[in-house]
Predict the structure of Protein NDRG2.
Amino acid sequence: MVLEDSDMECVFEIEISEHDVETPHGRVHCTMKGVPKADRPVILTFHDIGLNHKTCFDALFSHEDMQEIMQHFAVCHVDAPGQHEGANTFSTGYEYPSMDHLSETLPVVLKHFGLKSVIGMGVGAGAYILSQFALDYPTMAEGLVLININPCAEGWMDWAAQKISGWTHAMPDMIITHLFGKEEIHHNHDLIATYRHHILNDMNQFNLQLFVKSYNSRRDLEIERPIPGGNINARTLKCPALLVVGDSSPAVDVVVSPKTAVFPYTLHFILYINTCFFFSVPAASMTRLVRSRTASGSSVTSFDGSRSRSHTNEGNRSRSHTNEGNRSRAHTADNQRGRSQTDQPMDTAGNSGVDQAVLKSTEVSC
């Protein structure tokens, strides 16, 4: 189904419902936006520590560039126990779920809503939880968008630093250093003040401490890259995953390290949806998306040229799914030049920028 531009620009209302889902590991607050469609998965989100679904995802899903997605996919926001607005304080002695247990709540959430599968989008702790979920329940995960993920257990040096900083810094300071890089903290005072105010005034402090402790006690995901002819029982993700990290994010070194090379990766989110589900966004809308992102100074780049070249066939498949195959083959020479200049901004002249955005399909640096 292809929508006309006039259809894309019309205002539409999204049905919103809130649910408290009982699971073996506690009650989980969920917010469903839109009506799930039988032939499509739902986008399921999970937030980071110090945040909830509103502070973590509302700005993203309210952005005009996401409206094409919102018209075609329902979104289920999951809040970790006790992290949603107005949450009651847990009783003293309450045992907060581990990261593994939190991932085990998600099949119960899917069953509650009658869902067969989801596209997971997680940030930090939420990215870790969704990865664990996809490893344990591969048939329920169609794909993953993992932002600032750290798949490794906290080392003893990190543990010691947390303990020492805990003596001298309040919980908000510890969370701020997790969410933002040093440059952002030192220069963007208004942003940091906004998040500090949110953590202090909108979050239940006791519940938040339990969630932070659970995340800091995580274990290695113990994920392996699938090798042709290798161990068929290797613990690997069966779905594609898109890794996203900011240039100044405190997680950047972890995301681009060899440890995260075990994650398969794919395209910009809207192109990713097109590739996986043959959903067609109008070319005019895609061109506006590429232009708007280029104007804001962002670009799609490759951290590993050889890895990008190894996925040329995947790029060709994605172009065929977006009905751009013939035009892409006619621009082979331009495409090859685009791959050799992965540090340059995308060309936005006409629809060629869309083709190049497809080709530059690796981790995304924001």
